[in-house]
Amino acid sequence: MLVHYMKQSSLPTFRALNQALSKTTLKLHPSQVHGLITGVICGNPKSTAAWEELVTGGEDPAPTHQILQELYDSSANQLEDFLFEFQLLLPADSEDLPTRAEALTLWCQGMLTGLKLAQVQIVDREASEMTEAINDLIEIAKMNYEDVVANEEDEAAYAELVEYVRVAIILIYQDMREAETSKKSANSSNHLH
Questions:
Q1: Which of 17, 88, 97, 139 could form a cystine bridge with 150, CB 3.0-4.6 A?
Q2: What is the dihedral of CA 24, 26, 29, 31, to 10 degrees?
Q3: Domains of the chain, CATH where assigned
Q4: Residues sharing a CB contact under 8 Å with residue 86, sequence separation 6 or more, in sequence order
Q5: What is the pLDDT of residues 11-57, one digit of tens each?
Q6: Among residues 19, 114, 125, which one has the least CA distance to residue 66?
Q7: What pTM, to 2 d.p., does this model score?
Q8: Which residues does 46 contact at the CB level (< 8 Å), separation at least 6?
Q9: Among 1, 67, 2, 62, residue whose Cα is nearest residue 28
């Protein structure tokens, strides 16, 4: 019997990433950084680490570099190898709801920034499922988390939004890979003539 082992690709913890980022000049939010990295991976998985300078403000102590590289590698592996394992790096469910809702808006803002860094057009796009997903991320990024109340209804809405964003990211990633593959095959067929 053939047993297939998947690469272990768990994300660094929210707390560990937060501690590493607190040592940088910009002190970005961990969720925002994970969103940014995910956007870069979706838009251009072969991109250089220009995003890292953006995150660290140019200062890059070794422990911070190491955890950012872990975050990048594990996010890329989750998206590439087994999409449904992909998770957003957000505060624990034990945190209050407004804190988690703010982190989700920051995650989406980071994702959109990452797509821009990878030179993916995010506004005035042709209509498609991916455009709809990007437009929804833009709306979630603008969500007023201060209006969120810690009740069952808002808790359920938050959980649904997190899952929606997760699935939207998978869709964007797959669409970007398919577009890249079809561009490559179009280029190779042009070279045959």
A1: 97
A2: -90
A3: 14-182 (1.20.120.740)
A4: 75, 78, 79, 166, 169, 170
A5: 899 999 999 998 888 889 999 999 999 999 998 866 666 777 778 77
A6: 19
A7: 0.87
A8: none
A9: 67
